[in-house]
Amino acid sequence: LANVILANPAELADFRATCQTSSDSRRLEYLIRLWTAKEAYTKAIGTGLGTEFRELSIEGLSADTKGKEHR
Fold first, then answer.
1. How is residue 55 annotated by DSSP?
2. Which backbone phi and psi does 52 adopt, to 5 degrees?
3. Long-range contact list for 43-46, CB < 8 A, 24+ apart?
4. Three-state DSSP class for 57?
5. What's this model's pTM, rounded to 2 decimal places?
6. Which of 6, 50, 59, 67 is deepest in the core (most CB within 10 A)?
């Protein structure tokens, strides 16, 4: 799913690296955070789901969430 509709090459590389060292819940958390950030951005600019998410890059979002607190 990540490489088909969601992630650009850099995000996909980050996700794949994390897959080797993280639990299923961490991988799922990253995909949900990535989807949510891209969906919110495209809604804010008025293009919504008509935008190719692979063409967007969300800075500051990393698949490595170890030791980081999320609220």
1. G
2. -75, 110
3. none
4. coil
5. 0.73
6. 6
**For residue 8, which of 67, 69, 56 has the smallest C-alpha distance?**
56
Pair 15, 30: CB distance under 8 Å:
yes
Scan for tokens 């969906």, then name that residue. Answer: 39
User: What does each of the 71 residues of the chain score in pLDDT, given as a tens digit?
Assistant: 555 578 888 888 888 887 788 788 888 888 888 889 999 999 999 998 888 888 888 887 766 654 344 43
**Coil vs helix vs strand at 45:** coil
Would you say 49 and 39 are in contact if contact means Cβ atoms under 8 Å apart?
A: yes
Token representation of residue 43: 């809604």
d(CA 25, CA 55): 26
